[in-house]
Each structure stands twice: as structure tokens, then as C-alpha cells.
Amino acid sequence: MTEASHATRTIPYDVVVIGAGPVGENLADRARAAGLSAAIVESELVGGECSYWACMPSKALLRPVVARADARRVPGLRHLVDGDLDAAAVLAHRDDYTSHWKDDGQVGWLESVGVELHRGHGRLSGTKEVTVTGPDGETVRLSARHAVAVCTGSRAVVPDLPGVADAKPWTSREATSADRVPGRLIVVGGGVVGVEMATAWQALGSRVTLLVRGGGLLPKMEPFAGELVADALREAGADVRTNASVTEARRNGDTVTAVLDDGTAIEADEILFATGRAPRTDDLGLDTVGLEPGSWLSVDDSCRVTGKDWLYAVGDVNRRALLTHQGKYQARVAGAAIAARAQRVPLLETDRWGAHSATADHAAVPQVVFTDPEAASAGLTLAAAESAGHRVRAVDYDLANVAGSGLYADGYRGRARMIVDLDREVLLGVTFVGPGVSELLHSATIAIAGEVPIDRLWHAVPAYPTISEVWLRLLETYRG
Ligand SMILES: Cc1cc2nc3c(=O)[nH]c(=O)nc-3n(C[C@H](O)[C@H](O)[C@H](O)COP(=O)(O)OP(=O)(O)OC[C@H]3O[C@@H](n4cnc5c(N)ncnc54)[C@H](O)[C@@H]3O)c2cc1C
Ligand SMILES: NC(=O)c1ccc[n+]([C@@H]2O[C@H](COP(=O)([O-])OP(=O)(O)OC[C@H]3O[C@@H](n4cnc5c(N)ncnc54)[C@H](O)[C@@H]3O)[C@@H](O)[C@H]2O)c1
Question: In terms of domains, do 306 and 422 share one?
Fold first, then answer.
């Protein structure tokens, strides 16, 4: 058959999803649950970045690191965990966690919910139309009666510095899938990927140098989060350098050299660039529907692309919150909106906190950085709340003074902050940093998304003696 005749084969669906990461999978599932037919297109592995090169492998690498650090702070236990981590066992566990980079399990799940998988690269080829080029070069056209959802995620950005291309740098993909521990590792970037991977590889045996061009780590969180994580990384033996910009990177055999703006040269075996993300929209046929290839896709609160009544962009690709759980939330909202519009529901619930509005993206995004100590935040930081024009007060508490913290870890170090909206007396943001705080975070997310008045929070009594008692201390501090 000629290429033209291949391309003429058209399969109709109600909804066509491009990208079978966690977000695309959830959106297709929601469409099916609403009685719509759905196809999903995937060019790599069903499960996406999260399952194979991001959340899952990184957390599998970090869990033993944090568990060992916790155990070392419990009297009577420390001597049992004094030695090195068994790096081979940790890497093997990570491999199990990624299903050895095979997607059979997730393909089975798609089948079980009745979503048809088309393997290949999907491109928009006009309104409500996606052309898929399969691994064998064959093409098939998918037409969508109601909606196309772009869920193609993001990829790592490596800065275009002299020598970088030939330096064979790691991105988050190599940092989460490497099968051996480099003796020396340079990590460039002090965001979430940078600090998590610095924490993991330092504990697994690398000598890590973390180069941060700004003044501190985790710049999107409250400043004390980056400070406490930097202290811990240094105590673990990492060389953390702030205000350090890499100007070139060169490889000579097994050695890579990073040159800083002050002329310092640092040698290592590998260099990881953890310097942010770009949308996977450059080869997506956006030009066929009047959009700019390579751009982030801006959407309304139902995740519908600005100016297109049939096109949705959900998850990382819309840049609202580059987090799996938040993308899946958007998928639930967008799936419900697509179904409602398909059923010609006269009025969608697009008001604040309505069923068809991803309101939490603006107000109550939770995030845990799985370092030691953990850094967990929901909603706005003080700086973000102030720049959004809210009249706020930041209330701080030293987590070491909570009875449950002392029991959790000897010499507990940590801090909590809540941001109170003084006009409405509700919380706009909460940050906890310290061992064991990640599981506290959902209480904060509920308080923020629920807009629970401070007066009512006073009646939410935390159990004694848990770390959660920090809630009582924060409220007491606020009330004076
Ligand atoms: C190292 C690391 C650790 C992370 N840890 C966490 C964490 O602990 N918690 C958390 O919430 N978030 C974490 N994230 C963020 C999380 O990975 C992303 O937010 C999430 O994967 C986004 O999901 P998605 O479905 O939008 O995109 P992706 O997971 O990127 O999936 C997109 C899918 O689309 C496919 N695709 C792209 N273009 C096409 C095309 N043209 N045709 C067909 N298929 C296509 C891709 O192959 C991919 O499978 C982490 C990120 C990194 C890099
Ligand atoms: N536990 C989690 O929830 C988790 C873990 C990892 C990643 N993620 C998500 O994945 C996304 C990507 O993470 P990330 O760390 O790659 O991005 P990021 O945007 O969080 O951090 C990138 C950092 O690199 C710096 N940077 C950019 N260009 C640079 C350059 N040329 N030289 C030096 N520094 C430079 C930036 O200033 C920034 O601090 C984030 O939005 C994050 O939310 C989440």
C-alpha cells in the first residue's frame, strides 16, 4: 500500500487522547466511564514519564535513603543502620518499581477499561483529527466526534552551553534509570529534580557537587525549605554551591568538567542537568490548527485550549502544575467537562470549585519533595500570597518543639509555616519541613481547599503525641 492509502484509513472515536502518561490514561478512563468511546496514542511506554523516568523510579531510589536517615535518629536503632546502603539492591528495587521499563501491566489496564491503544507518534492533522505514525511507519487517522486531548507531558531542558552536547549529560531520565553509581556526580539546578537526585545519589555512594545558580535550593518553596535541605545535603557529604553558574561542560573520556562563571573547573564522572522542563509539543502538528509548535498550551479551568472548543491540553503540557497528582485531577475535571459538553448539558459547573473547573490548580496544589528532611507544601508561599495581593500573616513554628516530633526522631529538626488570609481568616498556604512530614500534608490541602475557617480548625484536635500537633501550635501562635 502507498503511504497515501495508509493515511486514508480513518477510525472514528468520541475522544482521542495523545499521550498515555498518568494524565492521558486518567482522561481516557473518565471518558469511558461517561459512556464515550476513547482512543489513546502513545509513542513510548504506556504510563509515561512518571512511571519509568520520574516519580516511580526516583521515589524507589529515595525511600531507602529516607528510611535509613529516620532509623539513624531513633535511639536503640542507629547501630543497626550505620553501614552503607546496598546500592545494588536499591537499584534492583527501582528496576522492579519501573516494571523493568515494560508497560504490559498498564496496557492490560487500558484494555480493562475499554480504551483502544494506538502505538506510534500522534500529530494533529486538522480540526478533531489525529494522524498516528506507527513504529513500522504506517499511518492511521483517528477522528474525534467530541474532543482531542493533548496529554504529551514535558521533557528535560538542557541549557545550550559550549561543549554540553558532547559531554553526554544526564537528564532526569538517566538520573532515574542509571544502572551504576557514578563515583562523582555534578548536579546542575537546585529545583526539585536537582535536590532529590543529589540526595539519592549521594546516599548511594556518589560524591555529589550540587551547583545552584541562585542563592538557595527549592526556590518555589518557602526559603526555610531550601535552607534545611541544603544543611542536610552538606551533612551527608555533598558539596552544595549556591550562586554558581555553569558556563561550559566538556567531556574527556570518562571525565566530565564543568566550568563555572568564576572560572572554577569541577571534574566528575557524570553531570546531571536538572534545569527545568519544556512541553512536548514541537512535533505535534499544532500548526495545522493555528497553534505555535513547541509552545506550552494555555487552557481555561476546564483545560480547554484557548480559542478551540474541541481541543484540551491536560497535565504537564499546560504548565499549570507539573505534578502527576495535579495532572490527574485536571484529567478528572476535563473528562467530566468533555462528557458534559458531549451530552449537551446546557450549563457546565465552571464556577470556582465547580465540577468542571480545576480550581485547585490556583489555590491548593500540594507537593512533597522526598528529601531528608522532607519538604511538603500546599497552596501559596508567603511571597506568592503577597504578590497576589492578599493581606496575610505568616505564622511559624519550630517542629522540634512538638512532642510527637521528638518521639519520631532524636534531635528533630524542622519547621512549619501557615499563611493566613487576614481578610477571610482562612489558610492560603502551609509548609512543613522535617522528617516524616509528607503524610501530614493532606491535612493542609483539605484546610486550604475546604477554606476551613480558622475558628473551625481550632476544633480539629490533633492526636497526642503525633507530629500533627504542630497544627495546634500554629493555631495557638496565631491566636496569641
Ligand atoms: C525526576 C522526576 C521526578 C518526579 N517526581 C514526581 C513526584 O514524586 N510526584 C509528582 O507528582 N510528580 C513528579 N514528577 C512530575 C511528573 O513526572 C509529571 O508531572 C507527570 O509525569 C506528568 O504527567 P503527564 O501525563 O502530563 O506527562 P508524561 O508523564 O510526560 O506522559 C506523556 C506521555 O505522552 C507521550 N507522548 C508525548 N508526545 C507524544 C506524541 N506526539 N504521540 C504519542 N505519544 C506522545 C510520552 O511518550 C509520554 O508517555 C517528577 C518529574 C521528574 C522529571
Ligand atoms: N517530588 C516531586 O513532586 C517532584 C520531583 C521531581 C520533579 N517534580 C516536578 O518536575 C518539574 C521539573 O523539575 P525540575 O527540578 O527539572 O525543574 P524546576 O523548575 O523545579 O527547577 C529547575 C531549576 O533549575 C534552575 N536552572 C534553570 N536553568 C538553569 C541553568 N542554565 N543553570 C543553572 N540552573 C538553572 C532553575 O533556576 C530552577 O531552580 C517541577 O515542576 C517539579 O514540580 C516534582
Answer: no
> Which residue segment(s) compose the domain that 321 sits in?
8-47+103-155+279-360
CA separation for the pair 31, 331 (Å, rounded): 10
How many Å lie between the centroid of ligand 2 and the Cα of residue 294? 19
Closest CA to 211 of 179, 178, 169: 169
Residue 378 lies in a domain: yes
31-41 pLDDT per residue, tens = 999 999 999 99
State which of 293, 326, 360 marks the end of a domain. Answer: 360
Task: Quote the ipTM score.
Answer: 0.98
* Count of all residues that appear for the chain in the document: 480
Residues 19, 150: one domain?
yes
- In DSSP notation, 242-258 reads SS--EEEEEEETTEEEE
The answer, yes or no, to whether any atom of ligand 1 lies below 6 A from the CB of 121, is: yes
DSSP of 267-322? EESEEEE---EEES-TTS-GGGGT--TTPPPPB-TT-BBTT-SSEEE-GGGG-S--
Give the model confidence (pLDDT) of 447-470 as tens digits.
999 999 999 999 999 999 999 999
- Residue 368 above 50 pLDDT? yes
Atom number, ligand 1, closest to the C-alpha of residue 323: 19
Question: What CATH number corresponds to the domain at position 467?
Answer: 3.30.390.30
pTM: 0.97
Q: Using CA positions, which residue lies closest to atom 47 of ligand 1? A: 44
Regarding the beta carbon of 159 and ligand 2, being less than 6 Å apart is answered yes
- CA dist., res. 289 & res. 300, Å (int): 18
